[in-house]
Amino acid sequence: MAKKSKQAYKQAPWRRQIQSVGISLLPVIALVVVVSIYLIISAQSASAGLEIMDMHYEEEEILRIIANQRTELAWKTSYTEMVKRAEKNGFETAPSESVHFMAIPGYTGQSPVLLAPPPGSENTLGPIVNEYYQQSLWDWVYNTFLTSAQTSEAAQ
Amino acid sequence: MKKGTFSRLTLIGIVLTSSSTLIILQMLHIQNSTKHQELSQWADEEYSYAIENYTPERGNIYDRWGRLLAGNEDVYEAGVMLEYVTNPETIAQTMEGVNGLTYDQIYDVVKQKYDEENSIYAVITDFLPSGVIDVLSDVKQTYETENPYGKDKEKPSLRGLIWSSHLKRTYPENSLASNILGFYSFRDRREGLGYYGVEEYYNDLLAGNPMETFMPRNPYMLESLPEVPAGASLVLTIDREIQAMVEKKLDEAIKEDEAVSGTVIVLDPRNGEILAMATQPRINLNQYWKYEDEFKDRVPYNRAISETYEPGSVFKVLTMSAAYDAGVVDDETTFPDTGRYEEHGAVILNWDRKGHGEQTMQGCMQKSLNVCLAWVADKKLGEDKFYEYMQAFGIGRRTSVDLGGEETWPLSVPGDADWYPVQLLTNSFGQGVAVTPIQLATAISAVANDGKMMKPHVLKAIIQDGKQYNTTPQVLGVPIKAETARTVTAMLVKSLENESSLALVPGYSIAGKTGTAEIPVEGEYSIDLTNASFAGWGPADDPQFLVYVWLEKPKKSPWGSVVAAPLFSDIAKELVVYLDIPPEDAQQNLVAKEG
């Protein structure tokens, strides 16, 4: 069999050339594959980056809309508007003489306003970007295969 | 043949290898040349980032129950990209009348010549509401459909007209609490500042940190995205409903009593929280630029903190408190009132120019006898102790209330070039000494709060970075003992009841004192021109509010007991309802039921 191969190569030396070319092309192909993966990931990262930038601008717009809506609500519930509405609905200010006080068990009066949580209530925010999008190919291979292999070995 | 092929292949190989090597060498050369580094740096600077001026959203201002007093609304700036304008007439016609602009004004802007260096964009108008923009957008779309790209110059086109949104400071309550809030000069979008009141005092907090940021253009530089936090929001101690009620009552009183102006301060003596502070004039904060029309002739923006005046007999509360606290008088001390006190080369008379015979200290306060108080200050307290107490009450010093524009008038004391012994006599009943309403209200609040004088303030909480930080009340000083404060309070309750004062509030025990200070005109005091005032607090056994009323030059009557006391009563009657304070009998019933 080996003799036949040698014979074949002697009769057609271009096979040897093809073999050499093939061998020399292998690292090039490997490089191209790596570069392709890199380009794909880069493109995806760039796309995600652009999306984040868009969302950043969108966030600004949303914050502006929230501020606007909050103010609009304040206009609609302003003192003058509320008095107008109350009068339109037939309400009138009760004179102090006609106010009766009564004890309501458990009622401690109007609570102080709390528009945001107090400093003590710390909310620990988790990472915004999923860790899968932050790790390199090597990290992924290491975490997915090597670490899990080590874990299963330890379990056994 | 084989040799030739080999030679050609070798030649091609050599050529390609040499070219590649040269290219690589050139690449390395470029990479390492100084020119490359300069170019790279220039490209980084020019194209990696865009410089953006970012003004964070100005913080909101709320009343004590979270009702918005100052916020921000979305408005639009309209302008033209001069390069793309095809039909300036259409733009001028369409926008005519918007924000009061005329056709010619708009046309002059739009007709400007495009210049890549100096003239790319021109502003037509600003602060347009979204409704106007919606209409403009519809019209622009219609024209664009009929005349794509504005190619046909005979047909209308709004090409080149653009708009961009931004936030504008807005005050949904218009003029309500305008003297407290101050205003933000929002029409000046680059150099806008807070003026007066809360807007001035807390400008830095509200404004946040406007900054010039580098916005990355490179999508990989996610971590460089700037985070510019909004300005802090403020929760005030002001109660919108009480403020509105007080402003209404004050306006009515000024009109009815034909006063030049007036001021009312409502505060909680237990912690110094200002619940309401009303003065005249007030302005619609959404039109702050009309400020000069209202505040002519150096009229202060907020009289409650900026105008000093001689307070008159209300000041006697401090003199009597000092005398009791120093132990130089007590309930048994009597004074033979002849209606005249002559000392230090001056003659002091009572307000009615009469003598009232033997008087206890209670009688002196009830009848508001100048002669008696001058005697107490001169013969009992003495100048050193009197001024020591006045300084302890904060007279002559700013209260440090957290509002922009607080003023003070220095207190002349023995040893000063401008102090004369006669001033001890006149100061004892509130003449020859000048205070602001907030100074006097703060000083008297010590008597209402067991001798403890709390710092007056309007800030209840700050909301920053998503957290609410509540403020802690501060003690300014303890000028008198708790026992003295209770004694003087009881004395003033009895005084009001004995004289059936117009300040009384049915069902509640109220302590208070009227004041009528003559105003000097060309060096002479005149009884026709007075500052009429009243300081009162209640309920006397557990004071939850202190109301200070000052009417300036009332024509209906010059007396504080006639014009200021009823205004106090009117306000206090409603205040007890807003503050959920039951009348004494109801309180006893509630306690009995709970027991």
Give the structure's gist in a few sentences.
In chain A, 65% of the residues lie in helices and 0% in strands.
Stretches of chain B where pLDDT is under 50 for at least 5 consecutive residues are none
Could you tell me the radius of gyration of chain B in angstroms? 36 Å
- Give the assembly state of these chains: heterodimer
Q: What fraction, in percent, of the residue positions of chain B are helical?
A: 25-40%
Tell me the total number of β-strands of chain A: 0
- CATH level 4 superfamily of the largest domain in chain B: DD-peptidase/beta-lactamase superfamily
* Largest pleated sheet of chain A: none
* General form of chain B: elongated
Structural class of chain B: alpha+beta
Order of helices and strands of chain A: HHHH
Rg measurement of chain A, Å? 37 Å
Relative helix content of chain A: 55-70%
* Mean pLDDT across residues of chain B: 91
Distance separating the two termini of chain A: 46 Å
How many helices of chain B?
19
Our count of domains of chain B comes out at: 2
Percent range for β-strand residues of chain A: under 5%
Q: Determine the number of helices of chain A (DSSP H or I, runs of at least 4 residues).
A: 4
How are the SSEs ordered, and which strands pair?
The complex is a heterodimer of chains A (156) and B (595).
Chain A: H1 2-11, H2 14-76, H3 79-88, H4 137-155
Chain B: H1 2-32, H2 34-48, E1 49-54, E2 61-62, E3 68-81, H3 88-95, H4 103-110, E4 121-128, H5 130-146, E5 161-170, H6 178-181, E6 183-184, E7 194-195, H7 197-201, H8 203-207, E8 211-216, E9 233-236, H9 240-256, E10 261-268, E11 273-279, H10 291-294, H11 303-306, H12 316-326, E12 334-337, E13 340-343, E14 346-349, E15 357-360, H13 361-366, H14 370-392, H15 422-428, H16 437-448, E16 453-454, E17 459-464, E18 467-470, E19 475-477, H17 482-498, E20 511-521, E21 524-538, E22 545-552, H18 560-578, H19 584-594
Parallel strand pairs in B: 2-9
Antiparallel strand pairs in B: 1-8, 2-3, 3-4, 3-5, 6-7, 9-17, 10-11, 10-22, 12-15, 13-14, 16-19, 17-18, 20-21, 21-22
